[in-house]
Amino acid sequence: MLPIRNSAKAIIIQDEKVLLTKNKDHEGFFYLFPGGGQEHGEQLSEALKRECVEEIGCNIRVYDLAFVREYIGKNHQFAEWDAHVHQVEFYFHADIAAPLEAEVSMQGTNPDEHQVGVEWVALSALDQIRVYPAQLIPKLQDGSAKNVYMGDTN
């Protein structure tokens, strides 16, 4: 049996836009919140800072926990190749630590395998693109992004 994996994710909102990683698979483009796996002995906030440098090329400040989401792969549309995955994701409010003008490239040092870029997406347009987890979209759009356990969602 594989261990449960912890992951830290950033919700970075500025000027009614959210910063997401842009990824591509056989179905086309999809978007994820920047962040990733926690390493042994690493605090979630430190994991999130490291992952944001790797994926979006920015130093961030981490604030309050907003959501906790579980992903149990065997229960979702990607079960064919993801059935063994059980991940608990911690979504934190965050912002970029330096002005955007100082963040020249927005290119990560070690992007994920399917990542093709980084994009600011208008909150109002989130329901028009493929974003995971989709259940976060209405909460971000209506401003209820705080202290919510979302359970096993995709």
TrEMBL record:
Its cofactor is Mg(2+). Keywords: Hydrolase. This is NUDIX domain-containing protein. The keyword Cell wall biogenesis/degradation does not apply. Gene3D superfamilies: Nucleoside Triphosphate Pyrophosphohydrolase. It comes from Paenibacillus alvei (Bacillus alvei). PROSITE patterns: NUDIX. It comes from the Bacteria. Residues 3-142 form the Nudix hydrolase domain.
